[in-house]
Amino acid sequence: MWALWHLPSSLSFDHDSLTQIGPSFLLSCLNCIAFGTFLAFIYLKTHNIWLAILIHFCNNNLPLMLPQADTWIQATASTLIQLAIFLPFLFSNVFRRAPSP
Predict the structure, then answer these.
(1) Residues 6+ apart with CB under 8 A from 92
(2) How far apart are CA 82 and CA 14, in angstroms?
(3) CB half-sphere exposure, 99, CA atoms < 13 A
(4) Cβ-based neighbours of 42, under 8 Å, separated by 6 or more
(5) Residue 83 is inside which H or E element, if any?
(6) Is 45 buried (19+), middle (13-18) or exposed (0-12) by CB count in 10 A?
(7) CA distance 86 to 37
(8) How far is 45 from 13, CA to CA, in rounded Å?
(9) 3-state DSSP call for residue 67?
(10) What is the per-residue pLDDT across 8-53, written as a single tens digit (0 to 9) for each?
(11) Would you say residue 55 has pLDDT above 80?
(12) Cα→Cα distances 46→29, 32, 39, 49, 91, Å
């Protein structure tokens, strides 16, 4: 769902042809899944929505301070790094259901 919300920014990537929109959207989907997992972990661990909001704010403004991904290789590398950092949180105890009595 959030990947669709971010579709306009995915489409704003400098495309040489329409065939590059698909990979850009795929990278956007993977980024949303990875970062969403991390934000869910933060909320479930701390029960503080404001901390998750602050982290999301910092994530949104980080590109203003860092160089932009100019090539598909850089964009793909960035996505793989985010997946490697954020997806392991999915396997934490926070996401496991307590056994029913």
Answers:
(1) 41
(2) 21
(3) 1
(4) 48, 51, 52, 55
(5) helix 72-86
(6) middle
(7) 7
(8) 34
(9) coil
(10) 665 665 555 445 556 667 777 888 888 888 999 999 999 999 999 9
(11) yes
(12) 26, 21, 11, 8, 17
What the block records as the tokens of 75 is 């964009």
The pair of structure tokens assigned to 78 is 């960035």
Amino acid at position 31, single letter: N
What secondary structure, in 3-state letters, does the chain show?
Answer: CHHHHCHHHHHCCCCCCHHHHHHHHHHHHHHHHHHHHHHHHHHHHHCCHHHHHHHHHHHHHHHHCCCCCCCHHHHHHHHHHHHHHHHHHHHCHHHCCCCCC
Q: Which two tokens stand for residue 62?
A: 């980080």
- The amino acid present at 6, given as its one-letter code, is H
